[in-house]
């Protein structure tokens, strides 16, 4: 409780005292909470399932630093998948924020580039259509400690021309196939993410969302994400898991046309589009190829 109160104090100071000179950073964008009769939750990460570290009343002034993509939310102002980072480091859904100009995208975390790709050869095409060439630092992924999440090979690839926003790969597998943690780590997310009535029923291409999904935080600041599970996962937030441990079962919940595992790898936390990396070369490096 003491830690939460400390964070809340920092948040309140950064948000309510909007008029102070200390918050008039040139890179920040002013905004106003537009939440009607309900309070706007301030969260530790850009998802509706992330722990709330405070709340703000309608009309409160904000100082927005940047924004990232996250689960879609609906508010009084707009429906959006953008989450705004505040000067305190916490996040609010942009759906409940009115502002006069757009908030810039948050910069990607500093990462190492593969030694085989010289800086001059770094692609100049937009990240949305170019597979990432970023890999974690040497030693961050000990070979021999990782396993494949399900048997089979990847089909739909990472950010292909036809699917530039596909931030992972799809691995076809039969319904109820056990999904394994690819490495030891801590479960940080267990969420039902769907625009449909429930994640406990089959989804479809017309439904949005990842369905039942799990995120695991591994050594080296790697996060893996496992989507479209058939029912509520077998693990809980905060649980320690080992490589190969069953965390759920293959299904087709959310935005899915049939049973398969959508698998993502991110370098950094929270997992966002900005830090997604191609799982195929990553898992090959880790000694557990998925293609």
Q: N-to-C SSE series? A: HEEEEEEEEEEEEEEEEH
CATH architecture heading of the largest domain? Distorted Sandwich
Radius of gyration: 20 Å
Assembly state? single chain
Beta-strand residue fraction: 25-35%
- Total count of helical runs of at least 4 residues: 2
Name the structural class: mainly beta
Instruction: Indicate the mean pLDDT.
Output: 78
CATH superfamily of the largest domain: Glucose Permease (Domain IIA)
State the low-pLDDT regions, or none.
1-26, 109-134
Fraction in helix: under 10%
Distance between the termini: 46 Å
| Number of extended strands | 16
Query: Would you state the CATH class of the largest domain?
Result: Mainly Beta
Largest sheet: 7 strands, antiparallel
Estimate nothing, just give the exact number of structural domains: 2
Main traits of this protein?
globular, Glucose Permease (Domain IIA), mainly beta, 31% strand, SH3 type barrels, 291 residues, 16 strands, five-stranded antiparallel β-sheet
Fold and architecture overview:
- This protein is mainly beta.
- It folds into two domains: 2-98, SH3 type barrels; 119-285, Distorted Sandwich (Glucose Permease (Domain IIA)).
- Helix content is 8%, strand content 31%.
- The protein has helices at residues 2-16, 279-285; strands at 29-33, 40-43, 52-56, 61-74, 79-86, 91-93, 97-98, 169-172, 178-180, 185-193, 211-218, 222-229, 240-241, 246-249, 260-267, 276-277.
- The strands form four sheets. Strands 8, 10, 11, 12, 13, 15 and 16 form a seven-stranded antiparallel β-sheet that branches. A five-stranded antiparallel β-sheet has the order 6-5-4-1-7.
- The radius of gyration is 20 Å and the shape is globular.
- The termini are far apart.
């Amino acid at each position: 409780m003491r830690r939460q109160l400390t964070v809340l104090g920092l948040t309140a100071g950064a948000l309510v005292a909007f008029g102070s000179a200390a918050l008039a950073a040139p890179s920040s964008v002013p905004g106003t909470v537009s939440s009607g009769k309900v309070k706007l939750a301030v969260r530790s990460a850009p998802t509706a399932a992330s722990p709330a570290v405070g709340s703000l009343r309608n009309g409160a002034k904000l100082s927005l630093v940047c924004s990232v993509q996250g689960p879609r939310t609906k508010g009084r102002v707009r429906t959006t998948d953008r989450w705004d980072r505040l000067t305190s480091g916490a996040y609010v859904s942009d759906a409940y924020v009115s502002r006069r100009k757009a908030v810039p995208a948050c910069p990607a975390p500093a990462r190492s580039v593969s030694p085989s790709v010289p800086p001059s050869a770094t692609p100049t095409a937009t990240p949305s259509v170019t597979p990432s060439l970023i890999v974690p630092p040497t030693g961050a992924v000990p070979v021999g400690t990782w396993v494949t999440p399900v048997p089979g090979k990847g089909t739909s690839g990472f950010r292909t021309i036809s699917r530039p926003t596909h931030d992972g790969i799809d691995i076809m597998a039969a319904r109820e196939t056990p999904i394994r943690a690819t490495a030891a780590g801590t479960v940080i997310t267990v969420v039902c993410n769907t625009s449909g009535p429930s994640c406990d029923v089959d989804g479809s291409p017309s439904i949005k969302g990842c369905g039942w999904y799990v995120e695991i935080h591994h050594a080296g600041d790697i996060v893996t994400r496992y989507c479209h599970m058939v029912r509520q996962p077998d693990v809980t937030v905060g649980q320690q898991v080992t490589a190969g441990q069953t965390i759920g079962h293959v299904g087709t919940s959310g935005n899915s046309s049939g049973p398969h595992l959508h698998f993502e790898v991110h370098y950094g936390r929270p997992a966002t589009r900005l830090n997604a990396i191609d799982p195929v070369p990553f898992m090959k490096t880790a000694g557990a190829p998925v293609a």
